[in-house]
Task: structure prediction
Amino acid sequence: MNPRALLEKYFNDNPQGLEIVYRHSRMVADKALAIAEGVKGRQLDLRFIEEAALLHDIGVSRVYAPKLNCFGKAPYLSHGIIGRTILDAEGLPHHAMVCERHIGVGLTARDIAEQKLALPEREMSPVTDCERIVALADLFYSKKGGELEREKSTEQVRSDLARFSQEKVRIFENWLADFGLGTPAPPLPLA
Result:
């Protein structure tokens, strides 16, 4: 399987969108591989992690995101489930789950219901180590103009996640600790 060729297939009439998504995804893949290579005591499939990271945003090819030169009909938030549909159809069900589950630190059915998101009301949070590593790496990079090449600091990622909830920050902190990049977050106080 050639991730670049698959991206080219779905961005077939959009070389500018392809270039943005591929450059972003290559940085995410490199970060994900660095994280995975540093994990001790676990056998992680580095080839899968690289492929999944390169394909995690394939669904962007079908969303409306003019700044990314994408003019599909679906809202940007749908790119994860669209990517899942694309990769399921390509016979890549495990890669497809990375697409669906990579948004932030994951979306729960409760998040989707409470925020009235235009998504199926189901769990869309990373489950496997490989899924979590790709989602974690993705948090450090943006596809925004002028920011494509810049890696965010851990503090910037925390700040981005804090806009959603302290629970999202706690999940991030626990991922950092789990993959040897920090210490576990203290438990949240009971409300």
Notes: The first strand starts at residue 64 and ends at 65.
